[in-house]
Task: structure prediction
Amino acid sequence: MRDLTLAMRHRSDVLTTVFFFIIVVSLFPLGVGPEAALLREMAAGVVWVAALLASMLSLTRLFADDYNDGTLEQLLMVPQPLPLIVLGKVLAHWIISGLPLVLMSPLLGLQFGLEGDELIMLMVTLLIGTPVLSLLGAIGAALTLGLRGGGVLVSLLVLPLYIPVLIFGAGAVTASAAGMGADGHLSLMGAILLLALVLAPWASAAALRISVE
Amino acid sequence: MSEWFAMGGHGFYIWGSYIVSALFMIVEVILVVRRRRSLVQRLGRMIRMKDSEVSG
Amino acid sequence: MFNLFKYSSPASFYPLAGRLAVGFGIASAILLVIGLYMSFFVAPTDYKQGEGYRIMFIHVPAAWMSMWIYVVMACFAAAGMIWNTRLSSMMASSLAPTGAMFTFLALWTGALWGKPMWGAWWVWDARLTSELILLFLYVGFMALESAIDDPRRAARASGLLALVGVVNVPIIYYSVEWWNTLHQGSSIKVVKGGVETSMSEIMVWTLLVMTFACWFYAIAVSLTRVRCTILERESGTSWVKELVQGGKS
Result:
């Protein structure tokens, strides 16, 4: 919860993430051309990839600030289980960078010509998917704590793990847009989210211990 | 002979696969063997230098 | 494979690895010659795919190796983390480049097989995508290890990554059963999972020979690579000094 208060003080971070998201998504129609049918097809994928990239921007800071000022080492010695602490940080990260993206997505979907149902599906898939990104990203951030490669290295590590989520998330939107059910996609994503909720904090905690000791 | 080589029209794909694979595997072997040899040489030189420093 | 505890010190493992590497290398070369001969001259023309299917004899072993090496690598990494044995972590690191190579070859030969047979170099189906993810995992493993200076932290961090990613391997393997994938052959039916049963016996044997050839190759190369790592890390010790000065290799 402390992270939330810290984040509120750094309100600019939230805005940076959101603006990056908006800009990336807006770049695509400029680059690809205004043909409506093409844009509608691309919409889900573009929004999803942009959400991914925007969310990854803030991942390195997930643990770095605490690492730099020494609080991380103290946190490791606290009686509360480390995975729980990680979960708290991940939640804060998601509220700061994931949730705003979810809320913004309908507006951006409109830009691409998506309709009501599709917009809702887009929001839902992002709602399930962005926490997964925060959870998996925590593992990457913990492993690369204090390293030179920084953000690029984290992306390299996390993106392979995240590809299935991207495929199912974007796929759900296109499937429902085409009239086919997205239930399969959604249930798979839900399963991934549950798995990530259980396993990722634990793995991140292990990674933190490795990085700090 | 050239008929066999053409592999029923699939020659490009088959040879493309096998030759690239062979290339990668041969290169990998060469790299690893060379690495070991140069390591042994380099370490040998370093140790001889240190020894001559000490005794010289 | 061998008594781990007796040879868990780099000093005693080094010469053993050398002998094993030569042995497996020779075995691999022999099997490769036999296997290639069988692939091209003994295995019959497939009635559905003609000659094109012969890519299978390098594609399938490469794919199997890509998955198998990853599992073995993850096991060594886990062993290194649990029992704090440096040699285990060194073995894991030595396996990674070879595993990555086989993954790349699996994807490459798969594309070359897929284009004439199914009309596409690449599709985003479950098996191909997860194999691609495997390649990224290998690369990430190697990148993470080289980015960390402290060998112990490097081994443990990359080991954790390898273990997190190991869940991908069963996905690759079972993806053709769980999902409707092109890899199983939707328009032109060459059932991948049924390849063991519906193939002629000669094809099975050829496949096995090539697989063992690749496996022994991987062992020989990884053992040689780990010998390099041992030399680098242990360069200050007396046994290395003797070894290097003695002119022996």
